[in-house]
Amino acid sequence: MTDEIVVIEGDGIGREVVPAAVEVLSAFEFDFEFVTAEAGDATRDATGDALPDATYERVADADATLFGAAGETAADVILPLRKAVDSFVNVRPATAYPGVDALRPETDVVFLRENTEGVYSGHEDRLSDDLSTLTRVVTSSASRELAEYACEFVEDGRGPAGDPDEGFTVAHKANVMRETDGRFREEVLAVADERGVDADEELMDAFATKLPLDPTQYGVVVCPNLAGDVLSDLAAGLVGGLGLLPSANVGHDNALFEPVHGTAPDIAGEGVANPTAAILSAAMLLEYLGHAGAADRVREAVETVLAEGPRTGDLGGEATTEEVTAAVVDRL
Amino acid sequence: MTDEIVVIEGDGIGREVVPAAVEVLSAFEFDFEFVTAEAGDATRDATGDALPDATYERVADADATLFGAAGETAADVILPLRKAVDSFVNVRPATAYPGVDALRPETDVVFLRENTEGVYSGHEDRLSDDLSTLTRVVTSSASRELAEYACEFVEDGRGPAGDPDEGFTVAHKANVMRETDGRFREEVLAVADERGVDADEELMDAFATKLPLDPTQYGVVVCPNLAGDVLSDLAAGLVGGLGLLPSANVGHDNALFEPVHGTAPDIAGEGVANPTAAILSAAMLLEYLGHAGAADRVREAVETVLAEGPRTGDLGGEATTEEVTAAVVDRL
Ligand SMILES: CC(C)[C@H](C(=O)O)[C@@H](O)C(=O)O
Ligand SMILES: CC(C)[C@H](C(=O)O)[C@@H](O)C(=O)O
């Protein structure tokens, strides 16, 4: 059966790294149909709408989507697209690779970020000239669904240690947000307990202190939405930046894959962007579509190229996006 | 005129480091009257109340308070005490010291954290068996008051660079929390503009990536309440942990000073806790009460002792709290 994959390059280096990732996907003999769609700043400038309905519908109806990056319209594009694929978890691995300058080369953590609620609920009110409010939402159902996913993830040996006994850590701020994060924490720990998965907890501020001091303390980390956003970006700083990090927005029968980096306007259009994050996002897409072996081959090829070169400028090399991509395809 | 200083040791190593800080304060000939008060886990166990009304009133009526740490009742104690001193800003310097093992020894940042609202509003509701909400509050008045403080702080050369031209950075998440952090960001930047203080901005997730990559990019950082909590704790991880970091909760005519660290139950009661954070909090208290010269002398003495020893176990030494304190007093 053909899998329909929507491809959205977006803005800036999205236009360079997404084709690179598609080239890697096309190197396999899978029955993929690639369908392009438009979103981002350029789309807004051309059509008045950063995320046209046609793009939203196409993503909602696809089997999976590969997205690049959007500029100032990033939130207008990515937040609705996460809804389009009905995503309840954002999977964000942060791994340091040999050959890449990292502040903490021993970092190997996967964040499982709640992807629908928290302060991302979208409910804000301007109550007076002085006062605005936001309604932060936490439900037991979303918390439990995330926790079920985390348990399966751990049970399947998909954590960095590959060892189900390692369990996961839930990071939260339930000492202050007692009712909302209290609910989140309680439900996540209850699901882990029901399923016999080992789980411990950490306040999110303590986590922010302790991760740089010793990242090997953590493996799989389960967080509310904003905590996952900030703590996974912190981990990116420890592995050398956003340039290498992929992510998956996983839903019930659809998913969207995106590099964590942005549009990098300073180098966009020059053909020198690092395609690694987009290619690793494509590997997550392969795994999601049931091609775990192919996903592993992509990851191994990427690791070899990171270690041996060629390298793009962000990693101290002089190679083009195309040269790095060709080297990865070569090693598949 | 006598200044009344309330002294709350609290729990764990609070009982060791607060007396050390009082010893340093007492080494000067200022007209301080120290009044002790109780709060924390032990107080709750003894009286049923982690923060007795008498303590709250005493703090509210004092000129300044020095607080140690509380255990599991931390939030029950510190959040009301911040209200007792009517604190609108939490000042959190994160400085790496020579002689202290730090992941980023070049870190020198001061966080000015909004101290009354955001997700700390305290408004939470259990709306159903499935759903809880929290009302995140942002007002123009609190945002502007914080910004005015930040401008004065910068103008007075109190930033790490000591150079008013360095201005400040406002960290926020206004791309998602458009109305609430949008208001915060807009008001803070407007006040800076009105006062001719240079201000730039950073999304809080990008800040979490960029601070570990290069902390010298930042000096004074102005944040909403939770962002300030998490990002300042991240900075703590870059300077070697919470053991050295002081903080000030500044109000209109009252203030409370506390080390950022907790009760350290693993070493409590052994007389080997590092008193540095508490002593540096006492230095902030001296500065607040108008004794800037004395504050500088304390800071210099602390720096000398950190560089030359004696050192407590957390810094690889074998000295007791008392020996380190005596060494600091000796060098005043
Ligand atoms: C662009 C923004 C809305 C988004 C988020 O906050 O989720 C981004 O920071 C991310 O983490 O993918
Ligand atoms: C104990 C807790 C309520 C407190 C906070 O979140 O403000 C602490 O983390 C701090 O930063 O002083």
Automatic annotation (TrEMBL), chains A, B:
InterPro entries in the cross-refs: IsoPropMal-DH-like_dom
GO biological process, one term: tricarboxylic acid cycle
Keywords for the protein's UniProt record, in alphabetical order: Oxidoreductase
Gene Ontology terms, MF aspect: isocitrate dehydrogenase (NAD+) activity
Stored Pfam families: Iso_dh
Domain named Isopropylmalate dehydrogenase-like: residues: 4-328
Family: Belongs to the isocitrate and isopropylmalate dehydrogenases family.
UniProt name for this protein: Bifunctional 3-isopropylmalate/3-methylmalate dehydrogenase
